[in-house]
Amino acid sequence: MYVGEDPLFGLMNRIGKPVDGHRPFPRYRTTPGGWRTLSEALGGNTLSVVGFWGEPAAVHVALREELSGDVAVVSLACPDGHFASLSAVRPSVIRLERTACDLFGLVADGAVDPRPWLDHGQWGVTRPLAAAPGPAAAEPQRYPFLATEGEGLHQIPVGPVHAGIIEPGHFRFTANGETVGRLEQRLGYVHKGIEGLMAGRTPDDAARIAARISGDATVAHSLAFARAVEAALGVAPPPRAVWLRAVMAELERIANHLGDIGAICNDAAFAFMLAEMSRLREAVLQVNDAVFGHRLLMDRVVPGGVAVDLPDGGGKRILDLVAEVRRRFPPLVAVYESSASLQDRTVGTGTVSIGLVNRFGAGGHVGRAAGRGQDARRSPGYAPYDDLDFEIPVLTAGDVNARVWVRIREVEQSLSLVEQMIRRMPGVPRDSHGATPLPRLDLPAQGGEGMALVESFRGEIMTWVRLADDGTVARCHPRDPSWFQWPLLEAAIEGNIVADFPLCNKSFNGSYSGHDL
Amino acid sequence: MLKHIWTALTGGPVTAAPPPLDTGALAQLCDAELAGRLDAAAHRRLGRSLSIRAVDAGSCNGCELEIHALNNPVYDLERYGIRFVASPRHADVLLVTGPVTKNMAEALRRTWDATPDPKWVVACGDCACTGGVFAGSYACAGPVESVIPVDLKLPGCPPPPRLLLAGLLALLESSAEPLSAIAPSVAAQGQSRP
């Protein structure tokens, strides 16, 4: 960086040429030389990686300048299928580079970890999204786990089918007695080929798939996809739709945090909290169903607006719910706070340092419990949050307890947000028959490129979409927050006992489906 | 804290009434005429209780959230003698979700193999029944029945807890012999299981 240069756009203008029609953040095309300069810049701490994804003959990386919050995308053409790896300077892209190789056959030269990630050799095809997909893998390869050496070490393999109602993934613990020396994750079991399925569909069809990227963050993923499509087309949804979407997003956040707080306490053998919290969560889901017609609010946020409007009396139902949660939640928080047996398990367990959180650009409760206050609702920010009054809780301990407290504080903030939004919800003009039309736009059938950053209950979702000239999805890449949180779980468990793994894992609550796609 | 626990204990139950069990709805839910096939031996063996092993074979996690809800105080599954267990070796029923990803197909087969007879398989959710929005993907093997035999299909995206409860109660009430035990030839039809 030169003195006086804008940290992000100065660099971008030195290494690349802007590409037209990419909204709302600029995209730059660079050369292998420019890519090397970028790689050097990533060695410092000013930039964080927001996403990394491939196309048949190109790779893209989305970056944020941490202080200003500026965001830009850099693209590098790889006609020969090779590019210089960024993983040595930025370990958060290791798994994303491995994924680009699995799906597109794009090889990262000098990669820290060249093993396949999502491809388990079962698909009957290799590099399925490349221009020319490859033949089936001859034999499923044995996956080489990282070596661990030392006296008295033993390995504990867990999964993919776990002993609970939980998504599948494999964990390989190397333990010395009860103490975990290393945890290695192997994910990819729930890879459904979502990016491949979205291609060629209309935004409306693809939105149904976006809603099922991760079932617990269905509103947030739908919103990220819808906003990316709207950005690509340069259209803005009706104001009422924007507010309704935010109400749904906050209800989703409340429901998930309530469930997680209960489940974390249950993993510390405190079942009373699970019973009480899951009862509160159920109350939220029942109101979702009564007001919006779906317990998890699936398919309610669509490109161009929303699929349902608030019915008569719906606002009051939601306000009553807010009042009920406000009445029942604080005594339960008091139980959490005053139970020595719970605090004994959560305080100081599964600690993640602020250095790692910043290096990985981890958001959500994982980042905020360790001092990183990034929240997409504030930076870059989107409507209607710039009109609303809320705080982003940040703690510094980085342990299980801090992640529980971030959730508790976020529930309180979300309750306040829902209340503010219901009270200030913009109306819709009635038509000549006295009916109120659904707040939803008809989308034009045209091309464009768009990107959206949306805060889910887990953290920041980035969705990037390119629409073909006929308005169908040419390429869509949704990046779930879990991509930057899963690797930190490996670090968090180190030095803890095996029995505390469920507690650490639940306090992260990484998405398997959102990560595996 | 004791005050709050005391309030919770004395506040009266929050549990909802069980969903009605009529044979019409049952017939709609149950694939392969499950409702008609009663077997006294299986009934005696199970003693009117079911142990369920949930297997996520690639779902988006939506079905898991609703299966979790079955355990909350409102639906309170355990009052019917139905409970979730940690191992397929303890299970009577495999409750399978997802459009069976190819990366999970082998694990699902092995879980089925590890479950002792008599056993039932319930396909939970649209993806498990038909593949849902993921049908046709290079990474999905297809609905659950393309990998292991299925006795009962519970549609929905995701199926709400009341429907799940109705389906599981139907299974419990009918106590039918599993397809795989009663008629291997029927079970083999339409299956790609080796």
What does this protein look like?
The complex is a heterodimer of chains A (517) and B (194). With 517 residues, chain A is of the alpha+beta class. Chain A contains 17 helices and 16 strands. Chain A has a five-stranded mixed beta sheet with strand order 1-3-6-5-4. In chain A, a hairpin with a 2-residue loop joins strand 4 and strand 5 (58-65). In chain A, helix 5 (203-210) runs antiparallel to helix 6, helix 6 packs antiparallel against helix 7 (239-267) and helix 7 (239-267) runs antiparallel to helix 16 (501-508). With 194 residues, chain B is an alpha/beta fold. Helices cover 38% and strands 12% of the residues of chain B. Chain B has helices at residues 2-10, 23-29, 40-46, 62-70, 102-114, 126-130, 161-174, 179-182, 184-188, and strands at residues 50-56, 82-84, 93-97, 120-124, 152-154. In chain B, strands 2-1-3-4-5 form a five-stranded parallel beta sheet, with helices on both faces. In chain B, strand 4 (120-124), helix 6 (126-130) and strand 5 form a beta-alpha-beta unit. In chain B, helix 4 crosses helix 7 (161-174). Chain B is globular and about 55 Å long. Residues 30-42 and 176-194 of chain B have low confidence and may be disordered. At the A-B interface, helix 4, helix 8 and helix 9 of A face helix 1, strand 1, helix 4 and helix 5 of B.
Helix-strand blueprint:
The complex is a heterodimer of chains A (517) and B (194).
Chain A: H1 9-15, E1 16-19, E2 22-23, E3 27-30, H2 32-41, E4 47-55, E5 58-65, E6 71-77, E7 82-84, H3 94-104, E8 107-109, E9 153-158, E10 170-176, E11 179-186, H4 194-198, H5 203-210, H6 218-233, H7 239-267, H8 271-292, E12 301-302, E13 305-306, H9 314-338, H10 340-346, H11 354-360, H12 364-368, H13 377-381, H14 400-424, E14 448-455, E15 460-467, E16 473-479, H15 486-493, H16 501-508, H17 512-516
Parallel strand pairs in A: 2-14, 3-6, 7-8
Antiparallel strand pairs in A: 1-3, 4-5, 5-6, 9-10, 10-11, 12-13, 14-15, 15-16
Helix pairs in contact in A: 5-6, 6-7, 7-8, 7-14, 7-16, 8-9, 9-14, 14-16, 15-16
Chain B: H1 2-10, H2 23-29, H3 40-46, E1 50-56, H4 62-70, E2 82-84, E3 93-97, H5 102-114, E4 120-124, H6 126-130, E5 152-154, H7 161-174, H8 179-182, H9 184-188
Parallel strand pairs in B: 1-2, 1-3, 3-4, 4-5
Helix pairs in contact in B: 4-7
